[in-house]
Amino acid sequence: MEKNNKAIVVFSGGQDSTTCLFWALKKYDEVQVVTFDYNQRHNEEIEVAKEIAVDLKVKHHVLDMSLLNQLAPNALTRDDIEVTDGKDGGLPSTFVPGRNLLFLSFASILAKQIGAKHVVTGVCETDFSGYPDCRDVFIKSLNVTLNLSMDDEFVVHTPLMWLDKAQTWALADELNAFEYVREKTLTCYHGVRGDGCGECPACELRQKGLEAYLEQGTEVNR
């Protein structure tokens, strides 16, 4: 494959995708981002993504994926469904069936249009909620399928795949983006920026990782 230093990042404006954006900006000559509007629980996510894209001076694509909202009723697409963890081995109420399958497929179609060979996503198998479409085996399988479907040679990158949340904070720090990610991003399921509401599963996971990373730093400095 010819050398290609252009990438597109699947971007929600959250901790993980923003860390991936900083990672991509260090690695590639040109980076663009794509956000998907599927009538998610709070529109604030899209606004945050827009603001970060402007701030970091990257071209931002927002694609209409409202069909996903019609097909997949869950806590991220319906205000009347409570945000809950999975019970008895089941998936949490925030799981959107087919989301990463569709997002990465459309991101790759867009990548082909803009001449990018690299697609970056923040999925992670180490600290995740049991979502099947965050697994490494799924990403590798889809990467092959995307290349076959478009007769092209995309590479789907997952910089966070084997990192826990503390290690994700460490990566942001290595990229000189720790404070930016902590203050500017939106991870909270209830639409609260920065450290969030502190109560939903996304905030609890983020805060637990942050505390673990800060504690590691404290121990090193003792």
TrEMBL record:
<keyword id="KW-0547">Nucleotide-binding</keyword>
<dbReference type="Pfam" id="PF06508">
    <property type="entry name" value="QueC"/>
</dbReference>
<comment type="subunit">
    <text>Homodimer.</text>
</comment>
<comment type="function">
    <text>Catalyzes the ATP-dependent conversion of 7-carboxy-7-deazaguanine (CDG) to 7-cyano-7-deazaguanine (preQ(0)).</text>
</comment>
<keyword id="KW-0671">Queuosine biosynthesis</keyword>
<keyword id="KW-0436">Ligase</keyword>
<feature type="binding site">
    <location>
        <position position="197"/>
    </location>
    <ligand>
        <name>Zn(2+)</name>
    </ligand>
</feature>
<feature type="binding site">
    <location>
        <position position="188"/>
    </location>
    <ligand>
        <name>Zn(2+)</name>
    </ligand>
</feature>
<dbReference type="GO" id="GO:0008616">
    <property type="term" value="P:tRNA queuosine(34) biosynthetic process"/>
</dbReference>
<comment type="similarity">
    <text>Belongs to the QueC family.</text>
</comment>
<keyword id="KW-0479">Metal-binding</keyword>
<dbReference type="GO" id="GO:0008270">
    <property type="term" value="F:zinc ion binding"/>
</dbReference>
<dbReference type="InterPro" id="IPR014729">
    <property type="entry name" value="Rossmann-like_a/b/a_fold"/>
</dbReference>
<keyword id="KW-0067">ATP-binding</keyword>
<dbReference type="InterPro" id="IPR018317">
    <property type="entry name" value="QueC"/>
</dbReference>
<protein>
    <recommendedName>
        <fullName>7-cyano-7-deazaguanine synthase</fullName>
        <ecNumber>6.3.4.20</ecNumber>
    </recommendedName>
</protein>
<feature type="binding site">
    <location>
        <begin position="11"/>
        <end position="21"/>
    </location>
    <ligand>
        <name>ATP</name>
    </ligand>
</feature>
<feature type="binding site">
    <location>
        <position position="200"/>
    </location>
    <ligand>
        <name>Zn(2+)</name>
    </ligand>
</feature>
<comment type="pathway">
    <text>Purine metabolism; 7-cyano-7-deazaguanine biosynthesis.</text>
</comment>
<keyword id="KW-0862">Zinc</keyword>
<dbReference type="GO" id="GO:0005524">
    <property type="term" value="F:ATP binding"/>
</dbReference>
<feature type="binding site">
    <location>
        <position position="203"/>
    </location>
    <ligand>
        <name>Zn(2+)</name>
    </ligand>
</feature>
<dbReference type="GO" id="GO:0016879">
    <property type="term" value="F:ligase activity, forming carbon-nitrogen bonds"/>
</dbReference>
